[in-house]
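Thread amino acids onto this structure.
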């Protein structure tokens, strides 16, 4: 019986020690683990949000690059300054390249529209039908916006050994942003 009392006391002491350890050490560690798990979940949520923001930022940067390239191209097409002398030089080069003679070239001035100003130039060129067509195609492919209005084609008498010639009269229109400078 003495052995049984001793076993009960030892068992009771073991339970007491276990309970004491549970409430002092294990419970405290469990609470710390729960706090750390909650912090981990919050940090994981923040990380996933941050990754999403970085991805959106990268996509926005890519789109900005595309839009910037388009904007730079648009600025070339509709400049803020119209250098008439540069335009006339370009027209002269295009006519030489296409073997077309410029017979008449006269800037007519500027007229204001809603969001842009229109600069008109009166032109007359002479050459073969195909060379004038090539000249017109090159005008169409210029960096800046250039339109041809009131095109009139007339035959020009040529000698027997010469290629048939035509004369093309037209108004050339180019544009500049509203209030932009016109030089030349």
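Threaded sequence (184 positions):
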């Amino acid at each position: 019986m003495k052995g049984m009392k001793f076993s009960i006391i030892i068992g009771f002491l073991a339970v007491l020690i276990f309970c004491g350890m549970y409430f002092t050490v294990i419970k405290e560690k469990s609470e710390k683990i729960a706090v750390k798990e909650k912090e981990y979940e919050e940090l994981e949520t923040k990380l996933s949000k941050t990754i999403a923001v970085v991805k959106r930022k990268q996509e926005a940067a890519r789109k900005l690059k595309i839009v910037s390239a388009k904007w730079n191209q648009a600025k070339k097409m509709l400049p803020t300054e119209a250098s008439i002398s540069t335009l006339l030089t370009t027209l002269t080069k295009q006519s030489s390249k296409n073997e077309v003679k410029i017979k008449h070239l006269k800037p007519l001035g500027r007229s204001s529209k809603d969001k842009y100003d229109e600069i008109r130039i009166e032109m007359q060129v002479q050459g073969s039908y195909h060379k004038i067509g090539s000249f017109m195609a090159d005008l169409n492919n210029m960096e800046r916006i250039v339109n041809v209005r009131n095109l009139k084609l007339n035959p020009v008498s040529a000698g027997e050994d010469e290629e048939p010639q035509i004369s093309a009269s037209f108004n050339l229109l180019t544009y500049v942003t509203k209030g932009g400078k016109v030089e030349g």
